[in-house]
Amino acid sequence: MKNKLLITGGAGFIGSHVVRLFVNKYPETNIVNLDALTYAGNLANISDIAEAPNYRFIKGDITDGAFINRLFQEENFDGVIHLAAESHVDRSISDPLSFIMTNVVGTANLLNAARDIWKNNMEGKLFYHVSTDEVYGSLHRPEDFFLETTPYDPQSPYSASKAGSDHLVRAYHNTYKMPVVISNCSNNYGPNQFPEKLLPLMINNILKGKPLPVYGKGENVRDWLFVVDHARAIDMVYHQGKNGETYNIGGFNEWKNIDIVHLLCRVMDRKMGQAEGSAAGLIAYVTDRAGHDLRYAIDANKIMKELGWEPSLQFEEGLEKTIDWYLANQKWMDEITSGAYQQYYDSQYSER
Ligand code: NAD
Ligand code: TYD
User: Fold this and answer.
1) Which tens digit of pLDDT belongs to each residue from 186-196?
2) Crossing angle of helices 198-208/315-328, nearest 10°?
3) What domains, with CATH codes, occur in the chain?
4) What does 146-207 look like in DSSP terms, one character per residue?
5) Which atom of ligand 2 is nearest to the CA of 187?
6) 3-state secondary structure labels for all residues of 23-53
7) Which pTM was predicted?
8) Would you call 134 a catalytic residue per the annotation?
9) Does the beta carbon of 220 sit less than 6 angstroms from any atom of ligand 2?
């Protein structure tokens, strides 16, 4: 029975949903949330569980190897769920080195510290790396899907850094017999997602009457999964996943960017009580992302068959819930988009 769990990146989008689920569902497990609180980390995302007796927050940076070693020696974790990362492809294009540092070096620091405290007895320990489907590259034929056996072919600095960290996790399993699991998930959406990602960016811009920047022709395809369903999958992989295995997680829910933006615009018009077509009038086609992957699509049959996971929400229902959350939490949005982020956004947008 694992009872001292480290979750990294728990103040971010997906991490906050994972921390909430684990803190509430496993009162016997002591959970430490380690997060550097970068621009993407926000303690407001998990304020509801901040006082829970089985929960503790530690501010710290996974790129600081000496700090990570000390933390593992002091805390003696027997499980790790590692989500902390630089996560946005556009930022990885303008600042690749931060991605190498956090995603590759940071993951290596965690693996090394875990190996040091677990090396005499790996029994009952587990290092779980939460990764992305982007490591598999870009699909070009409609009949193709990413399987767990699909060779890695990352195309962006972000996906290359995540592929690097996945390889390190497998290397520690193979070389040091560290118990590990990896999951590779498709695009998440839902409450608390930082508004640099497609859906919250569009919601925020519609609310503010700003242009909706669609990259290229909007033909790129992504598979969308509600974040709470990803958190449920992470729970299952952590508790039931087989040592050394990989699980793909996805929503069987592919959308072309332009179609999802139009759907979002229609729902926003209805929710904001404005004439149909108002939000879509803000769509602006802008210069394409460099090296833009055409299509991601996950075959999630393994986790469905072996662990019994399946998505709980239809996409339209998840989208309504997400929009309702952003409408009810405009203060959250205003706080995180003020100041430095706004300057960053304006500078990126003016370059397109
Ligand atoms: P996010 O950017 O919202 O959150 C990342 C969190 O990591 C933030 O709280 C940030 O403060 C923290 N962090 C960043 N650098 C750190 C460092 N050096 N030390 C400690 N903490 C640091 O990301 P997210 O969208 O929640 O993604 C979480 C994980 O899931 C990532 O590993 C990502 O690769 C993976 N993933 C994301 C998606 C998606 O659609 N968002 C899909 C599949 C997999
Ligand atoms: P994003 O949310 O950044 O996720 P990822 O690049 O990891 O899939 O982008 C989703 C898709 O939307 C991707 O094809 C790029 C596109 N996109 C836009 O067209 N405009 C935008 O402003 C953003 C942020 C993304």
Assistant:
1) 999 999 999 99
2) 50
3) 4-190+224-254+294-313 (3.40.50.720)
4) B-TTSPP---SHHHHHHHHHHHHHHHHHHHH---EEEEEE-EEESTT--TTSHHHHHHHHHH
5) 8
6) HHHCCCCEEEEEECCCCCCCHHHHHHHCCCC
7) 0.97
8) yes
9) yes
